Structure formats: structure tokens, C-alpha cells
Amino acid sequence: MNSFSNEEFDFTFLDEGFTAKDILDQKINEVSSSDDKDAFYVADLGDVLKKHFRWYKALPRVTPFYAVKCNDSKAIVKTLATLGAGFDCASKCFLIVSNIGVPPERIIYANPCKQISQIKHAANSGVQMMTFDSEVELMKVARAHPKAKLVLRIATDDSKAVCRLSVKFGATLKTSRLLLERAKELDLDIIGVSFHVGSGCTDPETFVQAISDARCVFDMGTELGFSMHLLDIGGGFPGSEDVKLKFEEITNVINPALDKYFPCDSGIRIMQSLADTMLHQLSRWQLTNCKKSCIKEQSGSDDEDDTNGKTLMYYVNDGVYGSFNCILYDHAHVKPVLQKRPKPDEGCYSCSIWGPTCDGLDRIVERFDMPELQVGDWMLFENMGAYTVAAASTFNGFQRPAIHYVMSRPAWQLMQQIKEQGFVAEEEEQDVSTLPLSCAWESGIEHHPAACASTSINV
């Protein structure tokens, strides 16, 4: 294959001796002389590469399908396309993927309830794989895309998830048989089963039960004459380390379940839709626009035990109607990291952090102990990659933050090698282990002891 340039991906190289912190400082310096000191992102594409290798090491039988809805940035989509990932599309965003040259067999239209017009778009684009969970959807597909390769989405026990999805999507085992029979009558092709245990799943055994149920539906389909060969085990995996249930803890439960119900010699292709698992390492800086010193009764916190008899309210230039919508939608808990190093003898105050809109709900952090900041100081929020800027609005006229992508040269060289020779996880493991980990941790930004926790969003 021909080589490609970083201009195609729209990122800045991290030259030897430079870190992501240098890019952050450079961007801050660029806006320091301007009145337009807007919030911005710095995204390390090398972290996507590292997590791709980590994925194959932990789930060697499962092909990752990136959920484009969580962040449809061209740089991220092209990076994952180069790595050979598939793509999970919830709308005709599959056109974004198709337009960069991803073949349709690497795309699944994974929305169980689709507009007829978009089903037709899929047919015209050659996208055949798509999910369903109702008879009405079968009727629409039969009319608009009769050659589709259908995947039946089943309901799961998502009671242990932060964000439950089976209240909206998924067929029961009893309904599944009826749907398979109806699909047979309509002469539609059912190729497999999908499920989603819910975002932020806290019990890996939920995957085991869902895989067992999928096996039952596979057997039903085979009995009716369908060639069942695809299992989609959905999402719900964490993308950062500051979570109770770690990525490998979940995969250590999933792998034996797959081997039990879908053995290697069964010929079943296994895939998984993912978002945070690939995209947590996207950090954002935002400016402190204003601050307010309050007595206890006026505190932004409900807790009355405030030190020094004073609390501080900070107003910053992005909020829950922008990138921090993850607080409302995904129950995220974000914590700031300070750009300025606090003095050793500097005291801390109970602080709350608020977004820029005129809405009283626009609160990012309810209570957090940190040194006193000044207007113009910057805060860093790490692990803001998925379901943040993609779902941001322009409420109150505030614009979405710009994203600046970076990648180290070793990571870029490895990308070139993968494009030319293909992906071989074991051979490249040593090379990947040398790639930078995090904008803040790797660059030497000093974390205040109380300000070390980063975002935790599981989707």
C-alpha cells in the first residue's frame, strides 16, 4: 500500500524531546494575547493505537467495531480505519466511514429502529449488516433493503448498569423466536445476534448470561434454517483505570463464556461495539473566566464543613450543555487538574465549578478542594474522549471547543507499518509499550493531591 501523510489525519507531530504538555502550553501561549481564550481539546491519537493493541491482547477473538456516534472526528475514524477496526453506525453516519474508503463489510448499521430513508441509504451504500428487534423493523427492511444481513438484538439484564438500554431496545427470548419465524416468512436473511448489557456495567457476570441467551437464539435460528455466524457482544467496557471494574477483569469473564457457548471451532465471528474503550485519552483545557468568594450559606456545595470559613465558585468557559454533557447523560464525575503548580504552603478551599451558561443546572463539579485560582488560570480535565464534544450543543450561543490532535513519531511509524503489513498484535506489543500514555501524567504536570482523579465514563 502507498504511505500516507499526517495531513490526511490533521494532527501535529510530537517531535523527540517534546510532549503533549508542550502542545498544551503552546496553545495556551497562542491565545494568551487574545481576548478569545476558548476552551480546547488536545487528543493523543497514539493512545487510540495503544488501546487497540490492548484490546486484541485481552479479547483476541473479538473484532472491535468503533461506535462512530461517540466521536465522529475524521482523525479518529481514519486512525481506527487504518488499524483495521470495524464501525458501528447509529444513523447514516456510515457515509462518513464510507467516504474515507472503509469497505461496507466493515460497517454495521446498529440501530434497531431506523428511518426507511436511512435504510435505503444503507442499501445504496452497500451496507448490509443491520440490527432489529421488532416485527415492524422487519417489515421496513423487507421493503427498503431485502438483501440486508440482519442481526437480532436481544434484551439483557442491565440492572447492574449505570445507563440501562434494554428498557428501550432488545427482544426477549420468547419474542426472538417469533421474530425469527416472521423473518423466514419475509425471506429475510438473519446472520446473528447482538446485545448490550448497558453502559457502565458493574457486574461482568451479566455478559455471561447474555452470551448464554445469545446461544439459545443462535440455536433457534439454526433450527429455522438461518446461517447464524455473527455475535455482537455490545459495549459497556471502561476506557480508563479509575473505575471499580477494570477492563481486563471483564474480559477475563467474557473469554471463558465465549469459549463455552461459541467455541473457536464453531466458525462464529465475534464483534463488539466500543466507544470509551478506545477514546478516553482526550484531554481538554478550559479557562477560569470568573470566581466568587462566598460565605458558607452561599456555597455552591451542600456540605457545610468548609475549611477556612470560605468557599469559592469558579465559572469556566465550557459546561454541561457543551463537552460536559457527559455529567447529565452518562453520570460522569469529572475532576480538574491544575496547570499551575500550587505552592507547598498554599492552602486549599472548598470549590465548585460552573459552566458559562445562564442555567443554574450548569454545574461541572459540586465540591472539590484545591488552591485558590485567579481569573485566567487554566484547568485540565483528562479522559474526555467519548460522548462529550459529539453531544455538545451551542446553548446560549457558546461554541463547541476546537480539538487539536497529536501523535508521537514512533506511533506514526507503527501506523505506517500496520497499513503496509497488516496488524499483528503480538509482534508489535513491545513497540506499543514505549508510546506515551497521557498528556498530563507523561508530561510532568503536577497533580494536586486532591486533584488526581480523572473522568470515569463507561459507555
From TrEMBL:
InterPro entries: Ala_racemase/Decarboxylase_C, De-COase2_C, De-COase2_CS, De-COase2_N, De-COase2_pyr-phos_BS, Orn/DAP/Arg_de-COase, Orn_de-COase, PLP-binding_barrel. It catalyses: L-ornithine + H(+) = putrescine + CO2. GO terms for biological process: putrescine biosynthetic process from arginine, via ornithine. GO terms for molecular function: ornithine decarboxylase activity. Catalyzes the first and rate-limiting step of polyamine biosynthesis that converts ornithine into putrescine, which is the precursor for the polyamines, spermidine and spermine. Polyamines are essential for cell proliferation and are implicated in cellular processes, ranging from DNA replication to apoptosis. Belongs to the Orn/Lys/Arg decarboxylase class-II family. This is ornithine decarboxylase.
